[in-house]
Structure formats: structure tokens, C-alpha cells
Amino acid sequence: MKPRMPILAPATVSESDGVRYLHLGTPWVQGAMRIAKPQKIELEYVQRMMAWTLLRPDLGVAGHAVQLGLGAGSITRFCHKPLRWRTTAVEINASVIGVCRLWFKLPADDARLQVVEADAGAYVADARHHGTADALCVDLYDHEAAAPVLDDLAFYRGCHALLADGGVMSVNLFGRDVSFGRSAERIAAAFGDARVAMLRPTREGNTIVLAWKGEALPPRSVLAERAERIETSFQLPARKWLKLLQNLPDREATAA
């Protein structure tokens, strides 16, 4: 017997003050695009998900970027066009893919872009994909934006396996019911305490966690040089990210 597919909310669109928003049948915003500047990443937390670039020594050497959860396609468009990396987006909801193609300037698949209609958990568990991603952005929320739909240790171990040596993952953690401490502990268990950091939360409560394979976090002076290059080349607020970057809270303090 085949497993039952989850019932997925249809993607809907709204617009206000020159910005187009993606929803999944509720007022909760699942993504956004400024209509006049589709290559610019509009939402602050989505910009912060690109903080993985601080941990890459040379963005000019094209790698493979994977997104789990397409949203409004902001990261996918950015990695494909301004960054010019090979890009794979994994999205379970076919209506999200269709709406992104119609309303959010998501280009058709080509030699550097592939949008895969699939379950993100199955994708990271598939050994054929292991070791193939240089950057991995994880933003997986249901239509109510209450908690990540994939958030257990097995999933984060799959994310670790998906990354190539030196690869970096960024994860958006936000929700009314989610425990940040539990999620962060699972990520640290999969990657190791010394290979996990975070950016302080946005005003809306989005906390971006970074986890990586390979060497320890570079010195601040090295990160500062990279931040300058990222701002100059890609107009992303990388110097601000560096100011927000910190270690995860102490686990015992978080649990208390």
C-alpha cells in the first residue's frame, strides 16, 4: 500500500505597496517578492538565510545550492541568477511551484536550475543526494506557520549527509509552538556543538541557525573581509549578519 500523501493547502497570492506575497490558504506570509526588483530578497529573515555565504571562502567558485521549501522562490532566484550557482529547490506542494512560476518570476528549469516536486525528508534521506550540496537552506513550515514540519534528529542527520565537505546549512526556526532549544539541540547533535551558530532573532521572531561541515568557524577578521565582499558583490547586509552572529545558547540554560 502506498503511503497517503498529506493534504496540502493551495497557494494564494496578495499584493500591497509593490510587494507580492505568497500564502497557503491563510493570512500567514510564506514568502514575498518586490515586483520591481524580483532578484532582490525582500524579507529580512530570508536575507539572513543567506548568511551561509559568510562561511564560504570563495563565492566566485560556483557550487550547488539546495533549498528545502520553495516559498516565493526568493533564495532559488538569487542562487540561480545573481550568484550563478547550480540550484535545486525541493517543494512538496505542486501549487506552490505553479504559483511561483506564474507570479514570482521563477524561471523554467535549465542546466543550472531544477525544481523538484518531492518531500524534503525523503530527499535528504536518499543516499543518491548525499554529499552533493555546498549550501543548504531549510525553511519548512505548514500553512499555519506554527512549527517546522521536519524537525527531528533523523532529518538533521540527513541534512548533514546531504552536504559536501565544507558545506553550510541555514535553517529558519520560528513558530508559536516550536521550542527553539529542542530544535537547536537536534541540529547540534547532528553537526557537533562546534559546528553550529545562530543569528539573533528578527523582530518577528525568526532565528536563523547555521551548521556546517569541515573547519571551525573562521576568525572574525576573516569573516569581516568576506562580509565586505558579499555586500559589494551581491548587495546583501552581510556586515549586519556578522554583528548578529553568536554561539547557540547554553543547552542547560535553554532547558531551564
Tell me about this structure.
The structure is a single chain. With 256 residues, the protein is α/β, with parallel strands linked by helices. It has one domain (39-246): Vaccinia Virus protein VP39 (Rossmann fold). It is 30% helix and 23% strand. The protein has 9 helices and 11 strands. The protein has helices spanning 44-49, 74-80, 94-103, 120-125, 153-162, 180-191, 220-234, 238-244, 251-255, and strands at 12-16, 19-23, 31-34, 64-68, 86-91, 113-117, 133-138, 163-173, 196-199, 207-212, 245-246. The protein has an 8-stranded mixed beta sheet, sandwiched between helices. A 3-stranded antiparallel beta sheet has the order 1-2-3, covered by helices on one side. Helix 2 (74-80) links the parallel strand 4 and strand 5. It is globular. The relative contact order is 0.15. Residues 252-256 have low confidence and may be disordered.
Structure summarized in a few sentences:
30% of the residues lie in helices and 23% in strands.
Supply database-style keywords:
single chain; 256 residues; alpha/beta; Rossmann fold; three-stranded antiparallel sheet; 9 helices
Topology readout:
Blueprint lengths: L11 E5 L2 E5 L7 E4 L9 H6 L14 E5 L5 H7 L5 E6 L2 H10 L9 E5 L2 H6 L7 E6 L14 H10 E11 L6 H12 L4 E4 L7 E6 L7 H15 L3 H7 E2 L4 H5 L1
Parallel strand pairs: 4-5, 4-7, 5-6, 7-8
Antiparallel strand pairs: 1-2, 2-3, 8-10, 9-10, 9-11
